[in-house]
Structures are given as structure tokens and as C-alpha cells.
Amino acid sequence: MAQDKDVAALSETEAAEELERLAAEIAKHDLAYHQDDAPTITDAEYDALRRRNDAIEARFPELVRPDSPSKRVGAPVSEKFAKVEHAVPMLSLGNAFDEGDVADFLDRIRRYLNLSADDEMAITAEPKIDGLSASLRYEGGELTVGATRGDGTVGENVTENLRTIDDIPQTLSGSGVPDVIDIRGEVYMTHAAFADLNAQQEAAGKPLYVNPRNTAAGSLRQLDPAMTATRPLRFFAYSWGAASSLPGETQSAVLSAFKDWGLTVNPMIAVCRDLEALLAHYRSIEEQRATLGYDIDGVVYKVDRLDYQQRLGQVSRAPRWAVAHKFPAEKAITVLNDIEIQVGRTGALTPVAKLEPATVGGVVVSNATLHNEDYIKGIGSTGEKIREGRDIRIGDTVIVQRAGDVIPQIVDVVLEKRPDGAEPFEFPTLCPRCGSHAVREADAKTGRLDSVRRCTGALICPAQAVEGLKHFVSRLAFDIEGLGSKQIAAFYDDGRIMAPADIFTLETRDARSLKRLKDQEGWGETSAANLFAAINERRTIALHRLIYGLGIRHVGETTARLLARTYGSFAAFRSAMEASSDEEGAAWQDLIAIDGIGEVVARAIVAFFAEDHNLKALDALLAEVTPEEAEQAGGDSPVAGKTVVFTGSLEKMTRQEAKEMAERLGAKVAGSVSARTDLVVAGPGAGSKLKRATELGIEVIDEDGWFERIGGE
Ligand code: IVH
Fold first, then answer.
1. Which of 37, 238, 269 to mutate to test the pocket of ligand 1 (most atoms within 8 A of CB)?
2. What pTM did the predictor assign?
3. 187 contacts: CB under 8 Å, gap ≥ 6
């Protein structure tokens, strides 16, 4: 798809398509951000969309759309407030993401102004505040109108709300105040105010706010200024729009006058002479970032001389004389309050960091993974990212990182801030849930200790039992409607469901019970009846779902399907596994001969069937449910035994469906193309996998070809 292609590779038609898509996409996000104060993507992702749009427009200038995002700033104003037209539009800023971009910015300016290397060109550098911009009109020194940015041309009249902000004087005092001036700056909320507000919300049982920026935006756009007044907002002045006169000839001189007039200007502004000085100031601000008490997301550089600014002017929505040097995405400094040990389905003890809530890339983070015991010790043996040799202790100030959707992690410890008396963390050797020994198994061959410590309590461990039950009802296993993790946890706690078979005897037991399900909180006649019906629907179950649902270590969905296809019936599977405990025997040989089953997996399966309590639980379950027979290895289907790779977008089936279909027909579905691949099914937008298949001379067909191939199967 055009969407996945480099800009350089786009044809004109694809470029037009892409510009259309990007215009719609960016408009949607603008709306979410500016009007609803509820962004759905990270700033970095948003910036990437904008950059792609700009790059395509630069390559195909004739394709620039009338509704191009490059011609627009922010979102149209909502109907809630009266409109205010900005006498001078409120612009946005171009971005620099690394030092090279900053160097380019300086070069561009010098070239544009025709300055030689010796000519001086001062640049101011100041924090980029993560709030929302506002414009304040002062006439005769009195605040008359205050507005949000809106779409850059027309904003919303929020004068009375802005008047509630202490940093915004009603009257400008001192010398040189012009007759008319639009002061511009950022409205923001401090971390402390944000935390207070959330504490109040929590006390009142109301939902918590997500981050200070959105909360500031929401607070400023309250219909009742009294409401805004209860939300302590702040304001930094950093620029201006229309002005009848100006109190200086440079950016820095004007800001210094602002301060004299009673406005608040950020104290971290510096005037720099060259790239090195700018970058040094950038780094210094970055270092202070965590302790400022408010969110910033970069450093703004502006040409200091106003006559230069004038000459440089603007390109579409951003001044040529300024740029925002963004911080690399999504890290925050916070304090590790505690380390909690969670016990999973397989008994793995996973340490979870309980953090002082911090916003990381616009999201409040209060938990982070600590992976395992070695990671906490600062060993990070399995490719995680802790700075080597730094152990993590409760009370430490830590750096948290969040990348995309992954679970936040702690990547470093600020040793200078370690509190006196902080002790190295002692990882428990007993399971915190059931008290059984928790051990690190040694690899039979290498003797190396597993990085994971596991509870040996198996089913007597309530944590393992509950997690196992959750797995049993999960989507790829029994998938029982109305019986998810939440219900399982509650049913386990009240003793209704302690083992898989209990799910299927629930209805009968319930009928005789004094504590009927329908009378429990959150349940009623209908929902209870629906649940029993959903359970009954699963009394016959696909063999691979049952095998997967057992939660045997290392047996994921693919392995479960493989086993089902190989053995065909549960009885055959079970007796083969029981026989496989003899590693000299034929059953074991057959098991490890299956392509895709290694010794580690094989041992885990055999170990499962060697445990008496597992067999008892299984028998109880099999008294209630009937596993279907699986079609064995696709019979004579044309793709039986073949390794197939699906790539690109499929239009007639989902990936999951395609995979299931191929496997039903006895094919193996692989995720990447190798010499062992037999067939590649490529849809539109297929990229590197298709290329590799062609290089290797592997047969490639499209989706229609696939259906032809499998015929009426
Ligand atoms: S100057 C014409 N300075 O960032 C230049 N903007 O991404 C106007 N912002 O719309 C902006 N801190 O809301 C400037 N120190 C700062 C800023 C700043 C935050 C915001 C402002 C602007 C946006 C651009």
C-alpha cells in the first residue's frame, strides 16, 4: 500500500492518495487534540504524519490539496465560545528532531539572510511548554480580550477564564507599554496542581485526568469561569501578535520588557551565539526537565533580531525564524515507591515497579515492568535495557521509558538521588501468594540459571490457579462469552470456580445453591442464564482449543494446533504423551520428530501429563466436555505439508482466518520467508517478504490464486 512506501518511491497517483489519507488522518487527530482535548496518538506519531505530508508535498508541489494540513494550524473552534479573529495569525512551529536538524535550521537562516560565517546571528533558546497557547489583548495596558489559538486564525473567546490565572495581569504596568498589544504565551498546569486535582477526583470517586496538558485545556475551556478558577493554571508569555509599538529590537529585549510589565516569562531563556551554545542550553534544559514541576517537550529556538525575523517571514503555517527542538520521545523521571511481585500462570514471579505516577509521553504511568531478578540487580542479561551494573532499589529515583504500546520500563537509576539507607532489593525465594519455594531452574545442558524464578506450588498456588483459569477461558482457548478475567477472579474468590471442570458444573451447583448467581451483585436472571448458555455451547470443543487451554508451558496456539493435527484425537494425544515419559521409547521419538516441537517443549508437555493432579483435573473436565477430533494433517489437500507465508493486505479473509484455513488444510504457516518456504500468498502492499520470495525463487500467488489452489476445500 502507498501508506507503507517511502516518499521517494511513490508514484504520482499514490502520492495523491497518500495526501488525501494524511489530510483526513491529521484533521481527525487535530480535532481530538484541540477540540476534545483527548489525543489518541502520541506527539511523536503525530509529528511523523505531518512530516510525511510535508515530504510528499515537497516532492509533488502540484498535488498540494486545498485542505492540506500544511495550510492549517490546529482545529476549527467549537461552537461553545464566541469567536475571536486573531489580528495576526497564531502560528505553529517547525520541528527539529536531532542536532543535524538544528544545524540545518541555522544554515537555512544564514543562507536566506545572506550572512557570512563571520556575521553574528544570535538565537534565543527557551523551553517549549506543553500546554495550550493563548493570546491576550491589552489595550491601554488593560486586558480586554483573551482567546485560544483555535485554527490559528480564529480562536475562542475565553477572556473571563484567562482572568482567573494569577500569572496574567489585568493591567500591564511600567514603562513602554504599547497602546495595543497581543501578548502570546502558553497556559499550563503544574504537576503539583494536577496531582491535587486528581486527588480530589479520587476522593470524590470520579475518573482521573490523564495528563496536565489536556487538563489545562479542559480547564481553560470551562463555560463557567468560577470552575476555571478552581483549577490552578499558569501562563508563560513568549511572543506577541499585533502591537502598536514594541519595547525593543530583539526577541530577548521584548521578553525582558514583558517581565517588567508584570508578565511571567520563563526563567530559562538564553541568548546563544552558535550551534554549540544552543545545544548546550538544550542539554541543560533537558537535564532540568524532570524537576521543573511542569511539562515541557522541547526547546524553542528563535532568531533574536526582530528585523531578521521580519525578513525571514513564514512558510505556510510556521515562521522561518523559529524551530522547536523536540526531546527524544517518552522518558520521565520518577520515584520507585515499591516493588510488587506478581505470580503468573506458569508460576513465574514477575517484579512490577510501583511508581510515583509520572506522565511519560502524555500518559500517566504508575507501573513499569522490572522483568526479573537479574534486571533488578542491574544485570539485564536478556537484552533488556537497564544501564549495566546499576541495581534498582525501592526509594530510587528512576528513569522510565515508554515506547509505543509496550509496557513502560525502567531504563536507569539516578544514583545521586538514592536515599540514605536504601538497601538492595531482596527477591523473594518463597512464593508471595502460596508460600511454596520459588526456584530458578538450571538449564539441563548449559547449567545456566533461568532468569525467571518460579513458584513450585502449581495448583495449590491461588495465583497460578486463577491465571490458569483465565487462560482456560481466553479467546484462543474456550472463549466463553461473559466469562472473562474479571468474572474468573471473582468466581475463584467466592469459591464457585476453582478448577476448569467447575465451569461446566456451575449451573447444576448453582441450582442447588443458597447463594444463586442471579442474586449476586452485577448479575441478574438474564445474565446468569446467558452465561450458562455460553458455557454449554462449549461442551464440545475443537481439540487444539482444549490443548491450548490446558496452559502447558511453551504450548502456544501454534503448537497446540500442531499437536491436534498430529494426534487427531485427545485420547491419542494423551496416551502418546503418557508413553513419552520414556525418552528411549518410540512415542518420545515421534513427539520430537514433529517439525516445530523441540525438546524443551516436548519435556514440558510430558511433565504436564506426569503430574497426578493435572490428570485428575483433566478427567474431571473430560467428564463435562467432548473434544472434537481434529482433521489429521490436511489429508490430501493441495497445500498439506507445505510451509506458507501470507504477506501484504488480504481482502477476502483476515490474517487469522487465512492462518486457520491453511492449517486446517495441513499447511504450516510461517511468519517469514526462508529457503524452507513453499508458497507465498501476497496481497497488495507486500514488501520485503515478497522481495525475498522472488529472490529465492519461491512460488508467489495472490489471494485469488490461493482460493483457486485450495479449490472447494
Ligand atoms: S513560539 C511564532 N515559544 O508550541 C512562534 N511556542 O508547536 C509562536 N509553545 O503554538 C510560538 N512553548 O503553543 C513558542 N517557548 C515557546 C513555546 C511555544 C510552547 C507552543 C505554542 C505553539 C506550539 C508550536
1. 238
2. 0.47
3. 131, 132, 133, 134, 162, 165, 216, 220, 233, 234, 235
